[in-house]
């Protein structure tokens, strides 16, 4: 038992039963006199008389004060007040306790549809589906009249959590709550199925919506079906639905045509996409920003940048404002072409219109500038983006740190890391980028300090982290210390990979420690799994033509030991 465990044990050690009993003459005499009937200490205790006077369970509950989960607990509680308390509460368990306490212990309070909706929305967004389902069943038994929004929320969150079967089950349960499912919940279900690539089910549900569910579809339902067919790569089927919509009483809209246009773009058929775009114009409709952006993206993916620019020019001529996504598509295309001038000009336009580039787009631009040798330019760009309220994150920070280290600007990278750490929690990727840079230039004490900081903040090192530290030791001529790092790696349950063995074997051979190689693999085989790629590295390095018999025997021995 550890010191800590001993202290816990002592803290909760119960006193002997004799110390719990009242020191009455009857009790004292019972311990000495044989045949004397001892008084019952429990019936003599004052609490016994209190319990004996209670007639029922409800009266018992009323006789005690239950501590509320939060303080101060309101003396007067309305459903609206409870909804506000649940919505503000960030701790999910506490929100559930607040809901339960109000229903069970607050005088004269009864839950309403609004209070159930508030807690079920909170649980479903957090993917706490088990307690959510318990509450839905409780709501069903309560006979409280409820609305469809509750089910729409649950359907959406089951979709986001990749649980389409549970979404279907939820939809089918709606009538059991005394509620008729409408086209809103039906469309939400279809979107959930599209999200989860259950395209055949979308078509099946659509065909049966009137007969089985009593739901009359609308134009949005048809658009979801068109989307499902396009995602399935069935553009002909989507076009047939488009043609049949007027006969069903629906007029296709810009969204319908844009969805089919996107289907052609996905197939790489830009002629078909342009034809659909022309049909939109022929109907006298103005394409929306999404239509233009999808068309531009199609041209960019084929490397037809002049055509993409022409589409953007058309957009401006028709006074359709580009969105942040539009800018992102064209900027990313120019990044691939390494046209930094055009990228920076478009970024200025984007910032002027108060759009903030995404983290992925920022990384793309920084990478492009750094590959051109403009690391300082990339840092200046980042400072400019910070002034425009672009939020620093681990992806952007690790990208900048990587390039600063590659340029040998280790302390600038460290300064950037420290600034980032003031307002954010660095990820394993961010730590790895800086540790790799420190190890590359032989700053092992600094790398070790970063490692300690990483572990202290419960950021778990991965195989790359260990490999960088091993590489650092090998680089300064201390491959044996690298082996000790690998031992720790195995102790922590992190399996070495192809790179681990390659780095260590190169280090051992460069330092004339060839004899350690078979011992290294023997240790790894006995304490963890060695994959085929790692075996390949070992065999290629260790088994040379001049000593194939001796080394082959060593491998045989290791294989036998591993099998045993």
Explain what you see:
This protein has helices at residues 3-11, 17-20, 25-30, 41-44, 46-52, 57-62, 79-88, 92-105, 113-125, 129-142, 149-160, 164-173, 183-195, 199-213, 219-231, 235-244, 254-267, 270-282, 289-301, 305-317, 324-336, 340-352, 359-371, 375-387, 394-406, 410-423, 428-440, 444-456, 463-475, 479-491, 498-510, 516-527, 532-542, 548-563. By secondary structure, the protein is mainly α. It is globular and about 80 Å long.
Over the alpha carbons, how many angstroms does the gyration radius reach?
34 Å
Q: How many helical elements?
A: 34
Class from helix and strand fractions: mainly alpha
| Cα end-to-end separation | 34 Å
How many beta-strand runs? 0
> Helicity, in percent?
over 70%
Shape: globular
Biggest sheet descriptor: none
Low-confidence stretches: 1-38, 558-564
Portion in strands: under 5%
Overall average residue pLDDT: 84
Give a short summary of the structure:
By secondary structure, the chain is mostly helical. Helix content is 70%, strand content 0%.
Question: How are the SSEs ordered, and which strands pair?
Answer:
Elements: H1 3-11, H2 17-20, H3 25-30, H4 41-44, H5 46-52, H6 57-62, H7 79-88, H8 92-105, H9 113-125, H10 129-142, H11 149-160, H12 164-173, H13 183-195, H14 199-213, H15 219-231, H16 235-244, H17 254-267, H18 270-282, H19 289-301, H20 305-317, H21 324-336, H22 340-352, H23 359-371, H24 375-387, H25 394-406, H26 410-423, H27 428-440, H28 444-456, H29 463-475, H30 479-491, H31 498-510, H32 516-527, H33 532-542, H34 548-563
Helix pairs in contact: 7-8, 7-9, 8-9, 9-10, 9-11, 11-12, 11-13, 12-13, 13-14, 13-15, 14-15, 15-16, 15-17, 16-17, 17-18, 17-19, 18-19, 19-20, 19-21, 21-22, 21-23, 23-24, 23-25, 25-26, 25-27, 26-27, 27-28, 27-29, 29-30, 29-31, 30-31, 30-32, 31-33, 32-34
